[in-house]
Design a protein that fits this description.
The chain is an alpha/beta fold. It is built from 34 helices and 28 strands.
Length: 1042
């Protein structure tokens, strides 16, 4: 916190000058002169609530004041400053309380509305929105000491018996950090930590499971000169866990692979906070890779003629989760998400420290991260957490998840009752797995000596043992082991105080602190250096020389040997962190037979419930820490019982157990893979550039859309849930009838590849305030492209197909000059067809597969009702007449787009507020303000104009790199999605710059998501022929003159 840097300059001076912290409590604000205790005031009122750093530098500055008089003056001034800071802290607490109360009121209101909508009417024929849950233990079963995941093992066995012929393909995504299979550089930076190890081991473990053929771990390819060249290798095969296993058939492409996708700045390692602008590029390249490998897998394990799609796409952390959501929507496959660390929880903690939201967002891009996590809740079938605490205390902070509402929806699904368009992801607790086959615990005798089975007693001790033992004057005493970064949150200073102030504990045990690697303390970050220096001072204060070990270096391979040494001495492992999200080190310690003492806050509670191999303590209670350690060290029977319990139950945290639960949960997801057959174009006889995908009119449904904007006669009911099967039957019947009457399948296929074979495809996605401005841009772009047929055109707008058609005709343009049109902000996709003699029939054909591709979690009529009710409540609150702010636009609405006319843009809530409203109601959708704020389009959550382009790649094989997307200075609120990716982008300066106000209510700035230095993005100084040609040449596109 910038505002309290001065506190750091005096903290150590105060603590050194005022030793009376242990005195009895009394008033700290108004104390008689001469009796004020600055140290206690600081400790009790300030340091417990604010994140203080840089203590070493502060101590040096304070110590430099040698004059006692000057020192006392500075301390007196400090007291008043601390008092002022405490007042600021109270203000922060007040703001936090108000924010929490507001969130609670919104939640309660949403619950009441949802309960009112979902009356207990279990009428016959109502169906659940998703498949039923996996069977669990009956209510009468004894679950004591068991994790919920154990009950799914039998489910997995049953599932595998039924699907043993299946060979699954699973995709994992983890973008940031440096990832490789061997010699992981854990701790190299803040992005290369435990998550890297977790995802690599998960991929390796899943690939070894029966029924899993291939696992791909997608990450970023890094070719920077300051990192190892192994991170630039496109693929890396992970060695299997058990190389002797022959149970599973192995094919040419089977196993686990790290696949490195190039995206973002070349020759540069990018930290995770700066990756956001490059996410669309990753999605496009990953999409192409998955499609390619799916074809390869179909040749090896498929039935031929199609593709083996991933059974799930699993994103790890917010950046990968955002990518997984877009890939899940583009491929129409289930998504799984693991947060690892959550943005809202971090934001809450930083706000409590008094830091401003602007400062936090500037450093961490926290609002973009939170929006990505909200999107993950919208798109995920399953959210995997490590602990119950993560669900109850962290995920409940999000708009898109409410534990109470989730339980209600799950109860309805189990009864087979419709949830009326509402959806909530399934939260599943699956602790991280570990591989234990290489761990053989010591058989410890009564004297504390022991050896492993098969170990030569004459073999030399591991080098790390002597490195630790050299610190101790009596190395045979039990070792208290702590293994953590020197971070204030890990609470190691309190541990050293507890050890130093407990004489019986010092006499019985030694203390070993493994705190990363260091050469020189001055080279560490100020935070880490301050912790280390504080510990060194405490060692000196309590005269702990010969009793505390702090080795400067250790390898990752040394860690198991350190656990072994602690167990050999009949020691104890401790994790005293203020809060521990999971606690993997506790599992590692238990696997080596070490009893544990752990914080009562967070994941260790769940681990202790399973292993029952130690004690839980309040990390703020120094006396409780020393008492727990002393009890385990001094009571040999308790120590032995804890050791045996840990070794007996540790298998519940093994990777095979983890993977069984994981696969059983994946099996419960509704598989919604694309059902169409791939159309191969390589041997096509038609090369004419005049043919295009618009010739798909041969299988057209001839949708009768009138020029005045009437809706389709095929689809009139807005309730998507009730009409999906009926609509699909109608489409299939119509396609079958028309194809039999007009043309054979072979002949149709021969006409389809033309758009794919276009040299360039110009996608005009300019959002203009007036139709005349849009037509001017369209004509200019088409004029630049010239004639000859080598360039295709797609028009992408927020207008309906009828409005688009009318606009083209008013400008003297023929619809047949375009290959396709994307309408209603991406919820409709049409290909142009030849004009019909019947003037009431528009020359467009709807892609029959598109709606089934985007309908995931679409609320339909129930979403419409909620929006109508929300509009009425806003107007009532503002004391306005019905329709004064928003009114339903039935003429512009379709089954997959709910349109509303905005009468007063100044009165409508911000887009982020409307999204929040939908999410707390468990309604999943994409909200787009368009047409200069005059219209509001609500479409399926994974539908958008950018996703429609990806659909063309997935469905028809159109190369995205051949596309050039034209946009203005600004646009509709879905504008940011059009900027990034592998396609080229031309920004037309001066066009649509009046639409910037639509983006004024964003939760994060556009700069956080715009790839400013991307070689695929350029600007045209104006919307003129010459300026556009120059911009295209910058992108490497040289058009032939007409």
């Amino acid at each position: 916190m910038v505002g309290n840097d001065w506190v750091n300059s005096y903290l150590e001076a105060i603590l050194a000058a005022e030793p009376g912290i242990g005195d009895s409590k009394s008033s700290l604000l108004l104390r008689e002169r001469g009796h004020f205790s600055p140290s206690r005031y600081f400790v009790e009122e300030v340091i417990t609530g604010f994140d203080e750093t840089d203590l070493h530098r502060s101590w040096v500055q304070a110590a430099a004041t040698r004059s006692p008089q000057e020192r006392n003056t500075r301390l007196e001034n400090l007291c008043w400053r601390i008092w002022n800071l405490a007042r600021q802290k109270k203000k922060v607490e007040g703001k936090n309380a108000k924010r929490a109360a507001k969130r609670h009121l919104l939640r309660e209101k949403a619950r009441k509305e949802v309960t009112a909508d979902m009356s207990e009417d279990f009428s016959e024929g109502e169906k659940a929105d998703v498949p039923g849950e996996i069977p669990t233990l009956s209510d009468g079963s004894n679950t004591k000491g068991r994790m919920s995941r154990v009950s799914s093992v039998d489910v997995f066995e049953n599932w595998f018996a039924q699907h043993k012929e299946k060979k699954l393909y699973i995709v994992l995504i983890s973008l940031h950090g440096l990832i490789r299979g061997e010699n992981m550089e854990l701790g190299r930076d803040s992005d290369t930590g435990g998550q890297v190890k977790y995802v690599v081991e998960l991929a390796r473990a899943l690939a070894s499971m029966p029924g899993v053929y291939r696992v791909d771990l997608l990450t970023r390819q890094v070719t920077a000169p300051d990192v190892d060249s192994s991170y630039s290798e496109p693929t890396e095969m992970l060695n299997p866990l058990d190389t002797d296993s022959t149970e599973q058939e192995h094919g040419e492409s089977s196993g686990a692979y790290i696949v490195r996708i190039p995206f973002g700045p070349k020759d540069k390692y990018v930290e995770k906070e700066l990756l956001w602008p490059h996410i669309p590029e990753f999605v496009d390249r990953a999409l192409s890779y998955i499609m390619q490998i799916s074809k390869v897998l179909d040749e090896q394990i498929g039935e031929g003629g199609g593709q083996v799609w991933p059974v799930s796409i699993h994103g790890h952390y917010a950046d990968a989760g955002d990518s997984a959501a877009l890939l899940s929507g583009a491929l129409n496959v289930p998504m799984v998400f693991t947060g690892h660390s959550l943005g809202r929880d971090k934001l809450e903690q930083l706000l409590k420290q008094g830091r401003s939201k602007e400062e936090i967002n500037a450093n961490y891009k926290i609002m973009r991260r939170i929006e990505a996590e909200e999107l993950c809740l919208d798109a995920s079938e399953i959210v995997i957490t490590s602990t119950r605490q993560e669900i109850e205390e962290q995920w409940r902070l999000y708009d898109g998840f409410d534990p109470v509402l989730e339980r209600k929806l799950r109860a309805r699904m189990k009864r087979g009752v419709s949830c009326l368009g509402r959806f909530m992801p399934r939260m599943v607790v699956i602790p991280p797995g570990m591989e234990f086959h290489h761990i053989v615990p010591h058989d410890v005798d009564a004297d504390g000596d022991g050896a492993r089975d098969g170990e030569d007693p004459l073999s030399p001790d591991p080098p790390i043992w002597s490195e630790i033992m050299r610190f101790f004057s009596n190395p045979r005493k039990p070792m208290i082991l702590a293994l953590a970064r020197p971070d204030p949150k890990k609470n190691l200073v309190t541990l050293v105080k507890a050890f130093g102030e407990c004489r019986p504990l010092r006499e019985l045990a030694n203390l070993t602190l493994i705190m990363g690697n260091r050469n020189d303390i001055d080279e560490l970050s100020t935070t880490n250096a301050s912790v280390l220096l504080s510990i060194l001072k405490l060692i000196d204060k309590y005269d702990l020389y010969g009793q505390v070990a702090m080795p400067k270096h250790h390898k990752q391979s040394d860690v198991p040997e350190i656990y072994r040494l602690a167990a050999k001495t009949k020691g104890v492992f401790i994790n005293p962190a203020f809060i521990e999200p999971f606690g993997l080190t506790l599992i590692e310690a238990g696997a080596h037979g070490l009893p544990t003492v752990a914080t009562i806050n967070g994941g260790p509670v769940d681990i202790h419930r399973v292993l029952d191999n130690g004690l839980l303590v309040d990390p703020h209670d120094q006396q409780a820490i020393s008492d727990a350690l002393l009890k385990l060290v001094s009571d040999k029977h308790l120590w032995t019982r804890c050791r045996q319990n840990g070794l007996k139950n540790i298998h519940l945290f093994s990777w095979p157990e983890h993977c069984k639960t994981y696969l059983a949960r994946i099996a419960s997801c509704k598989q919604r893979h694309p059902k169409w057959q791939r159309v191969e174009f390589e041997n096509s006889d038609s090369d004419s550039p005049s043919d295009s995908l618009r010739d798909i009119h041969d299988i057209s449904l001839n949708l009768k859309l009138s020029l005045d904007g009437e809706k389709s006669s095929v689809e009139t009911n807005l309730d998507a849930e009730d009409t999906t099967s009926e609509r699909k039957a109608k489409l299939e019947k119509a396609i079958s009838t028309l194809s039999q009457k007009k043309i054979s399948t072979e002949k149709i296929d021969s006409k389809m590849p033309t758009l794919k074979r276009r040299k360039h495809i110009f996608v005009i996605s300019v959002d203009c305030s007036t139709t005349s401005d849009l037509l001017s841009v369209v004509k200019t772009v088409m004029d630049v492209a010239g004639e000859g047929g080598s360039t295709g055109f797609i028009l992408s707008t927020s207008m309906t197909v009828s409005e688009t058609h009318a606009a083209l005709l008013s400008g003297g343009l023929k619809p047949q000059e375009f290959d396709a049109v994307i309408c209603n902000s991406g919820s409709e996709l049409y290909f142009t067809a030849s004009a019909s003699e019947d003037k009431t029939v528009l020359p467009y054909t709807h892609d029959p597969d598109y709606h089934s591709h985007i309908e995931f979690r679409w609320g339909g009529e129930n979403l419409r009702k909620t929006l109508i009710r929300w509009i009425s409540s806003v107007e009532e609150k503002k004391k306005l007449k019905q329709g004064d702010i928003l009114s339903e636009d039935e003429a512009s609405s379709t089954n997959y787009c709910l349109s509303f006319k905005v009468k007063d843009p100044a009165s409508i809530p911000q887009m982020k507020e409307l999204r929040k409203l939908m999410r707390i109601q468990a309604l999943r959708c994409n909200v787009v303000y368009c047409q200069n704020g005059a219209r509001l389009n609500v479409i399926p959550v994974l539908a958008s104009r950018s996703q429609a382009l990806r659909y063309l790649l997935v469905r028809w094989g159109i190369d995205l790199s051949n596309m050039v997307v034209f946009v203005g200075d600004s646009g509709d609120t879905d504008y940011e999605g059009l900027l990034g990716g592998v396609h080229k982008t031309v920004i037309l300066k001066g066009i649509a710059n009046d639409l910037r106000e639509l983006h004024g209510n964003r939760s994060y700035p556009m700069e956080d998501v715009t790839p400013l230095n991307s070689p695929n993005i350029t600007e045209a100084e104006e919307c003129g022929r010459d300026a556009i040609k120059i911009a295209l040449e910058k992108l490497g596109i040289n058009l032939l003159k007409p």
